[in-house]
Amino acid sequence: MSLLRARPGHLLLSSIRSRILVIALLPAMLTEFGMAAYFTRQAFAAAEDNLHARADDAARHLTLTLPQALASGDGALAYALLEAEAGDSRKTFAVVTDAHGQVLARTGPPPQAAATNAYYVRASEIRSPTAALLGRVEVGVPSAAISALKRDTLIHAALLMLGALLLTGVLAWRLSNRLAGQLRHVGKVVARLASNDPTVRTQLPPQGEVGALAAGVNDMAEALQAHRGQLERRIREATADLASKRDMAERANQAKSRFFAAASHDLRQPLHALSLFVAALKERNHQPETRLLIDNIEASTGVMELLFNALLDISRLDAGAIEPRRVHFPLQKMLTDLRHQFGAVASEKQLQLRFRPCNITLYSDPLLIERILVNLIANAIRYTDDGGLLVACRRRGRMARISVIDTGRGIPPDLQESVFHEFVQLHNPARDRSKGLGLGLAIVSRLGRLLGHRVDLRSHPGRGSVFSIDLPLGDTRLIQAPAPISAAGQIPADALVLLVDDENAILRGMAELFDNWNIDLVTAHSADEAMQWLDSLGRVPDVIVSDYRLPGDADGIAVIGRLRLKYGQAIPAILVTGDTAPDTIQRIGQAGFPLLHKPLRPAKLRALLTHLIQQARTPAVG
Predict the structure, then answer these.
(1) Tens digit of pLDDT for each residue in 487-529?
(2) Is 45 exposed, middle or buried (0-12, 13-18, 19+ CB in 10 A)?
(3) What pLDDT score does 324 carry?
């Protein structure tokens, strides 16, 4: 498989085909050349031997027939014997000389032809029976026949070699094509296996080396298919297990959310009543000794309110009830406000708090960005024992990075991710509530994701931490001037507020508070009781303040709806709840009512009441 991937298929098959052709043709060509050379040489030797034998036979025959003619000096007889032996005079010549070298008879070409290489000449002595030398005879056989034979033999050998090479090439080409086709088929199967198709198989017989290769590919494909089936089964099992664990985690998270919502609601109820009584008591009591105790009680309830608000922020973020409102705003004003907010806190711990000036414009939600920086600075002050902290910013292309740098205790690398989870506090094993609930960085992480801004942490134990957030730069020309703050109005003396709540302590506390404000208040446990009181008074309330959770199936939204339907007016309404469940916050937000969470601050309630009543009584313009 690696070989087929390493080189293109057509190049590999061409190489195999050319190698097969070379392997087939080169030995055949060498063998045929050797055989042709051998047999041609043999043919040449045989032809020469035949030529020599002809000349020798003619010379030996004349040696036997010429002694009588030489002994008698009969030249005519000698000539007749030469003619008879020469046969074709154009191809053979013969010369007979006596003992003195005188020519007695001649036949064939002239004597000078014998000097050329066109004839093979054989000479022999002629002796009498008594061994006396009578003369000499020379016989010449033409060698042109040998040359023609050599030429014909070479032509025939070349033709034979060409035919053999052609036949060998055709056979090798067919063999290479067959082998290349089989390899091409195996290559396609391997390519389909590589493209995640384990069902493909080769269709070649298992004989031979290529067949063994094809069988091995099929075995590999079956193993891959079986392994893939096992992996798919394991993935299905793991997916089902993960889905089950995810469902369990979601149910646990929902149970946790319901628990915190229920616990928050149940704890907020008495805290809400307590804050109302404290506010009413503070309005009535002006003795210095008692005032100090009331202030301490109010401070304690304020700390508890901050803790509950942190839980509320987490619930609102999880419910998706917070929608960013991005605008172009200057950063320096926010840094100045933060310096005033945290200056006294840092001085109390003898820490140096510095803000580096940064005259840049950002594009984001300024309220949420300020909430992120508040949590980061508060966290840095809380876990810094000496030294101080620096809030700085710098440009990074089209972005700006705001960093909160402290000289605190630092965070180990293996715990840096967990500090952004809920209720994680590394340096608070005793769970001192004055150090918070461990929700500040969880809120920072959620707000960063909501805004799409990256939150980064770099920390070294014993050397401090750097929390940074990256924000897009804004346009100074698009900064909107803040709306002028109007002076707080007064609730009209004839205003009537309806309060619906099922907690007697809360009803009593609100009654005391409204009595101090000199505002008429009707309290009721349900919508029916509220309508009875209103009918007896013969008045329609200016504002309805209702708890969200009420006995039975009714809730504050339904109560407001019934009262509006009865009186045929869109009476302004406020919902108050201690429930922090995400679905509850989402449902109230969809209903469109102002929402206050218990324990509520009396000043905030009064400001909202004033706004709603004045808005309802102001005639529409136009």
Answers:
(1) 446 788 888 999 998 888 888 888 888 888 888 889 998 888 8
(2) exposed
(3) 84
Q: Which three-class secondary structure state does DSSP give residue 260? A: helix
Whether pLDDT at 611 is above 80: yes
Q: How far apart are CA 503 and CA 598, in angstroms?
A: 13
Closest CA to 78 of 126, 146, 121: 126
Under 8 Å between Cβ of 520 and 540: no
Distance, in Å, from the CA atom of 447 to the CA atom of 375, rounded to the nearest integer, reads 11
CB atoms within 10 A of CB 143: 17
> At which residue do the structure tokens 């005079």 appear?
89
Helices 9-65 and 144-194, axial angle in degrees (round to 10): 160
479 CB-near residues (< 8 Å, 6+ apart): 327, 328, 329, 330, 361
Torsion angle (degrees, nearest 10) of CA 14, 20, 22, 27: 180
Whether this prediction's pTM lies above 0.70 is answered by: no
Say how far apart CA 310 and CA 379 lie, in whole Å.
13
Note if the bond before 206 is cis, omega within 30 degrees: no
If pLDDT is split at 50, 70 and 90, which confidence band does 574 have? very high
CA distance readout (Å), 242 to 40, 238, 248, 327, 418: 87, 6, 10, 41, 22
Neighbours of 410 (CB within 10 A): 17
Please give the angle made by the CA atoms of 83, 89 and 91, to the nearest 5 degrees.
Answer: 135
Strand 543-547, strand 496-500: pairing = parallel
Could you report how far apart the first and last alpha carbons of the chain are, in Å? Answer: 83
The DSSP secondary structure of 134-201, one letter per residue, reads EEEEEEEEESHHHHHHHHHHHHHHHHHHHHHHHHHHHHHHHHHHHHHHHHHHHHHHHHHHHTT-TT--
Task: Specify the pLDDT at position 229.
Answer: 80
Among all chains, which residue has been given the structure tokens 């989870």?
Answer: 421
* Cβ contact 126:137 at 8 Å: yes
Q: By C-alpha distance, which of 89, 121, 122 is closest to 106?
A: 89
Here the tokens at position 343 are: 């200056």
List the one residue out of 161, 141, 142, 143 whose CA is nearest residue 153: 161
Residues in the chain: 622
Backbone φ and ψ for 421, nearest 5 degrees, come out as -90, 165
86, pLDDT greater than 60: yes
For the record, the structure tokens of 173 come out as 């080409």
Give the CA count within 13 Å in the CB-facing half-sphere of 22: 6
The rounded distance, in Å, linking the Cα atoms of 297 and 303 is: 10
Pairing of strands 496-500, 520-524: parallel
State residue 352's pLDDT score.
Answer: 92
